[in-house]
Specification:
- The structure holds 2 protein chains of 2 kinds.
- Chain A is mainly α.
- Chain A has one domain.
- Chain A has 4 helices and no strands.
- Chain A has helices at 2-10, 16-38, 41-48, 58-62.
- The relative contact order of chain A is 0.06.
- Chain B folds into 2 domains: 7-475 and 497-513, Cytochrome C Oxidase, Chain A; 535-728, Cytochrome c-like domain (Cytochrome Bc1 Complex, Chain D, domain 2, Orthogonal Bundle), CATH 1.10.760.
- Chain B is an all-alpha fold.
- Chain B is built from 29 helices and 4 strands.
- The N and C termini of chain B lie far apart (72 Å).
- In chain B, helix 9 packs antiparallel against helix 11, helix 11 (304-327) runs parallel beside helix 14 and helix 13 (339-368) packs parallel to helix 16.
- The chains are: A mainly alpha, B mainly alpha.
- The interface between A and B is large, with 34 and 52 residues.
Amino acid sequence: MKFAKQYLEGIEGIEIYPIFSLLIFFSFFVILFWWVITAKKDYIKNVSEMPLNDEEPLNTKEQ
Amino acid sequence: MEVQQFHYDNKIVKKFLYATIFWGIIGMAVGLLLAFMFIFPQVTDGISWLSFGRLRPLHTNAVIFAFVGNAIFAGVYYSSQRLLKARMFSDALSNLNFWGWQLIIVAAAITLPLGFTSSKEYAELEWPIDIAIAVVWVAFGWNLIGTILKRRQRHLYVAIWFYLATFVTVAVLHIFNSLALPVTALKSYSAYAGVQDALVQWWYGHNAVAFFLTTPFLGLMYYFVPKAANRPVYSYKLSIIHFWSLIFIYIWAGPHHLLYSALPDWAQNLGVTFSVMLIMPSWGGMINGLLTLRGAWDKVRTSPVLKFMVVAITGYGMATFEGPMLSLKNVNAIAHFTDWIIAHVHVGALAWNGFLTFGMIYFLIPKLFKTKLHSVSLANAHFWVGTLGIVLYALPMYVAGFVQALMWKDFNPDGTLVYGNFLETVSEIMPMYWMRAIGGTLYISGMFLLLYNVVMTIKSGSTVEDELAEAAPLQKIKSGRITGEAFHSWLERKPVQLTILATIAILIGGVVQIIPTLLVKSNVPTITSVTPYTPLELEGRDIYIREGCVGCHSQMIRPFRSEVERYGEYSKGGEYVYDRPFLWGSKRTGPDLLRVGGKYSDNWHFNHMYDPQSTSSGSIMPAYQWLIANELDKSNTEAKLKTMVKLGVPYSDEDIENVQKNMLEQGTQIEQNLYNDPDFVKSYEADKKYAEENGLEFVEMKNREITALIAYLQRLGTDIKIVEPEASQASN
């Protein structure tokens, strides 16, 4: 770590990197949960039923 | 509203399903042969292309890319068309995807047994095949995205996101890990060396598991489990969280394959942290899958499709609980290099991938042929045989793993190893290898039941290759958010934006880990006494790579008392700077070889390769007699050195000029050393005489492959034996 530190310290403004990483991580999950919580109920219901309404092949109906 | 009629392409789905079954049988059969090689190491004696080291990558590649790969395509092509209410974008691309992929598999099935390998796990194929993979993969992605763009369904179901993330991430991983400089049409050297090569490889290797064996199958789970259970997924909101957190976190976890290795500590710890976090999205997904069956558990009793899926999801849960546990450094110290890992991956492959595939096949085949499954009871029989097979495979391997770890680390009160002879630890677990082979036999028998059932079902059904469907086209709406529309609902109807965000999510982890290791030079402290390989050693190393020695022997001594006592000084990052590719290995069926140089005589190695059991009683290593007979191909050595120079290895012009002379000198020295053994002299001189008398061409020992291999083995790990390790570490 000693050697790595020496080089990383050479990068300008390195001290904000860990805070920046934490922020990315934190905001990622905040935004994610915000999306999910604000999602409309009927929308969620519609989308979740998509695999079930995709069939009724017409071939069988015609026969 | 106007309704459009169109046809689903069922033909392409069928083709991929057939390929899945065919390659599944091949891949598992090779695996079974390998399992029996542990018990009967001589079973393919003398046939180089059927030797363990060369077949192991064939098994892993066939199962991952041929069996699971074709299953992914079959499922994706079936579900995407229906979820998007559109035929695939282009039949030509679909067919290019299918035939291209099969051709790549055939190329792998030919080149791997012939010894053409880059030796990087799950990425063994040589560079021309790598390029073909990239082309076919792009054809697949183009076809998928094209279909999404012409869809008749406004919103993208979560399965489609998983497919998109799979496409993008596998492309990124494959391209960066395969970067290499070609020497000849089927030989290349990795663009990375040593520690860096290891990091890139396991960033790839781990995410091949994540984005080839997991995300596409999660997409399939989110489509086929609700269909088979005939009810929507338990929580669609949970699936959104599952998707984003999984792809965001997974990509960071690769370094957990390199704990206690010479990889810098910060990278190891980062890998551990994210691996532990990974349990949350993985289990969220598993629970979501299982709870989809709420109120439908009675169906599980009667439907083989659901049975397979339930065990598949349970297997996913087990493997993704075990994964984070194995990433803890103290657990990893026990499990790494042992058969525990073999158990872990097979729970994933046999239960999660295998059983979900079987469930999908039993679901799709009757649907595609407009008929009923030929025999439900036969499918149930397959389920039980397969489940028993998994249990009989995994349990003995767990026991074997613990036994190995305990024996490797067992000390006498006086500080010596209780089992100083590695072979004792091998003989101890032979019964486990037997049971494993029986478990494997059961599993593949189930596969034959499936084959029979599928064939009979197809015979009784009728083919509908282009299935008619109808749906209204999408109305144009403004591309921005509509009033009251949540951000995520908007995003889900914007595939391009969704793909870009997913790409960013997977790139963050890769960038944070890979770039510092590649750029910050001091992450790999150089050692002044480490010098490039001599030409003969380099050729020997390429033979070591060709024969797949890395499949059973590691070259990475972890800094444990037990390992230092057994193998010698622990590994330093700086020792590997000329290793292209790195050969740390991931399994110790045999002992570590990093410090084998100088440990035995040249004659010992010669006899050991000719007949391993003669030098090491009870060894399960196969014989490598062709190395002793074959003439060493020295025609590309100059080109090899020149390629290495381009990659930054400090060979001088003089080195390259004198390649042949140096090789001959070193070979002659080894030949002389071999003359110390009277038995060798007797048989070698007799051979020579016989050739002379009969006018046959005779290749002198100094020009044979075994000489190069001995040169390499005797060199291994000796650089740092010469000087005190403390004194040799310079700051840069």
